[in-house]
Design brief:
Glucose Permease (Domain IIA), eight-stranded antiparallel sheet, 5 helices, 15 strands
Length: 284
Amino acid sequence: MTKSITEYYSDPGFTVFKVPTWRAKFYTFLSVEIWGNIPSHLQRRLSSWYSSIYDKSFSKRIIKPYIRLNYSDKDYLDKFKPPHGKSSFESFQDFFIREFRELPKYESPFVWPCEGLLCDEQKVGQLNLVRVKCDVLSVATVFGLSDREIPEEYTFTNVFLHNKNYHRIHAPIDGTITRIQHVPGDLVVLRPWIYKETPSLPAFRNERYNIDITDDNDKVWHLSIVGGPAVGTIELAQGIALGEPVKKLQELSLFYLGSTCCMAAPISPRYHMQNTFVEVGMPY
């Protein structure tokens, strides 16, 4: 059944935004100055080792208590199925990369590509420059582009995917893939509330896949799929390749733990604003 458009709403689970400034600064120091100064290849090796724990069969015992702790809907898992054609969830990682049994249906040509907290939403031309290590960078850096390649009237959004959120990224529109780029980088902590005024800081320096989709009006939608600590890998979905057509809500990629999804779009969100919660398939 097709769902109707709803007003935006907040996620009460994100009251951690009230974290004191002194604590946020301390977390930022640990993430950027301590962990962030470990060589990237060691960050990835440690993250891969950590994430491998969730591939072990004993980790499936975490799933039921985790659902009880994080979801008020006791039947939450019923709308999902195990990944890769499995008949059951064999590990916590299987739960983490769960698949929809049936994709959500909304009457909208533009939809959100992921589920999570909309922690940043601004016009590209109004975004402040960000200092990363010794460089001052513009938002185009997130998408692996140079200044002015993204029009100033485009809207930049960053959706933070909490561990409890669905961790697959889908196409927001019908179109054609016109660019795929892998950007090696760090894996600093993603949680936006520890960066206060610059919640998208990790997207400027972390490992990511950038995917451009050109729609039927010849407008380019830029997506950046950003990894964080404990990400073993970012995996592109089958059939996602340069020059291939994609349909709205077609799967683009999945994360093996931890992620953020940034987007620069030719239109602004119509039903959501910063610090509200979005879901896959909701009208953008």
